[in-house]
Specification:
Two copies of one chain form a homodimer. Chain A is 44% helix and 18% strand. Chain A is of the alpha/beta class. Chain A folds into two domains: 169 residues, Rossmann fold, CATH 3.40.50.1970; 182 residues, Up-down Bundle (Dehydroquinate synthase-like, alpha domain). In chain A, strands 4-3-5-6 form a four-stranded parallel beta sheet, sandwiched between helices. In chain A, helix 4 packs parallel to helix 7, helix 5 packs across helix 7 and helix 9 packs across helix 12. The longest helix of chain A is centred in the middle third of the chain and has 21 residues. The interface between A and B is large, with 37 and 37 residues.
């Protein structure tokens, strides 16, 4: 078992990573504030892990709420189901919420915790690779709006993050690969050694080798924790974590959050960022190919789905949170492991990249 | 024109109080961050003051959204109308929201600002006495849930508060009196001199004498600002501001937020707090009568509506935010101008007070 720390002063918290952590009291009990606990999970995860998780909280007055599974349910209406459960159980402002599931459960539970009675504590127990390496760490919470992803939310840090790598054994291959997209992202942003490690070890990761998983998760969480510690509320360098996301969100939104997983959107987005960076002359075609190759070897999509067009994506990107004064800002590459946030690119090159030219 | 300051370090902000402030650029322009402004108001206020307010923001790219008027619309569904407008106008995370209206508009706009893209700035322009002396100052924002008032929200401080006392000239008498309930509250909490001033000057206030209004609003805002500065997130003494509110919220909820204004609920609640304090032997019957007399002279209700019963109110108070470990905590009186937050009262005395015994 490995422990990392997200260093945020008073709001610092540990990330526990290892096998068989679920159901063990020592990782969660010290982080519960009072007597009431509400576990939020979904209909896929509940039959697999809810009982085991409840056991870890057996000394508290614990209830649970089971949400429908899927990004299309990450909205204000389903969020209200969490508030319904909390109020029906007379939960007070000392209640601790627990997010047991993937990124959708984590983001919604975190936002429910940020807003219930103007803020209560919560614990993240992510069960997908994507949530383990990305959404459970850093305190970004929220829900989608029909007109844009994650448009409504809050910064709210958890009390701790418990990552049991065994939960990945029940994860579908496609979901595992989608999580690997975010893992690759950390190598591209600022960790070229990790990128090289991934080029060598991606098959071990995909075959769920416990050592490979633990190493990749710990590297990813450490990379993210370092960036979040320096810039909690995305005033500056935290924006680098959005590599591939401006493109990716637009693709996800255009497909109504169905048909394209978040990690798949990000993997296409990273390829588009590589191509735009290449067209700007910032990276060589060899480097761009090296990036696209790792993404394709992982079994992730690298091209915009054929039913979407450049105009549509440009319109959607205009309402992304990264837009400032009408200019779309992208995270682009100067090398593998060196990225910049910029709106200083050629709009024609952008259009060409979106058109596959 | 008088300027007060809410002292919260980096989040400090001014409150401007005076006649004819609406429509003047100097109070708002320095507090707008970028080019986009979205004014949120309601169908009652829009025809009266929207045009004038728009004029103050004429140098920006300003749009507006008009909500239905009433506490019964202070919910997640109507909140979403604000997000709809922001997204349709492609507002980015530099947008400044402006709350033009009473407490409902202020609370909802503040929560929309806290949550839109995880937080954007906002300005409060309160147009009711209640909003001017209470809800616009201090950063509490939120919406109601069918099972409880203000159960969903955030702490989010405005950039400034602009109080134009002229807006009270179009306020209904009943609304003015409801606001006076919160004014009286400040005297009771920790300002006995202000309470005495109100005993002498309440008729001048109710007849909208500009000097009396400005004095009462400035005293109330200063009293509130002092408490909020010491305890922004209600870890301790800020809870004193809830005098009359635990009773009051239960009465409002029992009446489905219709038929009883917030200030009316609070005025009944303050009378119940006085009676319970008297039954506990903490204040004399003379003091309790003095409190109830000022409330009745103001034209505010002092008794629980006849269609509500003690059991119902006790059940509703159990889900109030002030409950800790199952015990209902009240703000009770030790004297006029001396209050305590306590659960150390006799439950039989509470029941008697609720039964009017």
């Amino acid at each position: 078992m490995e422990t990392l720390t997200v260093d945020l002063g008073e709001r610092s918290y540990p990330i526990y990573i290892g096998q068989d952590l679920l159901g063990q009291t020592q990782y969660v009990v010290p982080h519960v504030k009072a007597k009431q606990v509400m576990i939020v999970t979904n209909e896929t995860i509940a039959p697999l892990y809810l009982e085991k998780t409840l056991a870890a909280f057996s000394e508290f007055n614990t209830a649970s709420v089971i949400l429908p599974d899927g990004e299309e349910y990450k909205n204000l209406e389903v969020l209200n189901q969490i508030f319904d459960s909390l109020l029906k159980k007379h939960c007070d402002r000392q209640v601790t919420l627990v997010a047991l599931g993937g990124g959708v459960v984590g983001d919604m539970t975190g936002f429910a915790a940020a807003s219930y009675q103007r803020g209560v504590p919560f614990i993240q127990i992510p069960t997908t690779l994507l949530a383990q390496v990305d959404s459970s760490v850093g305190g970004k919470t929220g829900v989608n709006h029909a007109l844009g992803k994650n448009m409504i939310g809050a910064f709210h840090q958890p009390q701790c993050v418990v990552i049991d790598t065994n939960t990945l054994n029940t994860l579908e291959d496609r979901q595992l690969k989608a999580g690997a997209a975010e893992v690759i992202k950390y190598g591209l942003i600022n960790d070229p050694e990790f990128f090289s490690w991934l080029e060598t070890n991606i098959q071990a990761l995909l075959s769920r080798d416990p050592q490979a998983l633990s190493y990749a998760i710990a590297c990813s969480c450490q990379d993210k924790a370092d960036i979040v510690s320096l810039d909690e509320k995305e005033a500056g360098m935290r924006a680098l974590l959005n590599l591939g996301h401006t493109f990716g969100h637009a693709i996800e939104t255009a497909m109504n959050y169905t048909g394209c997983l978040h990690g798949e959107g990000v993997s296409i987005g990273m390829c588009l960022a590589a191509k735009l960076s290449q067209k700007m002359g910032w990276i060589t075609s060899k480097t761009a190919d090296q990036i696209i190759r790792l993404i394709e070897v992982t079994g992730l999509p690298s091209q915009i789905p054929p039913n979407l067009n450049a105009e549509q994506l440009l319109t959607l990107m205009q309402i992304d949170k990264k837009v400032q004064a009408g200019r779309i800002r992208f995270v682009l590459l100067k090398a593998i492991g060196k990225t910049v946030v910029t709106d200083d690119y050629d709009p024609i090159a952008l259009k060409n990249v979106l058109e596959g030219a």
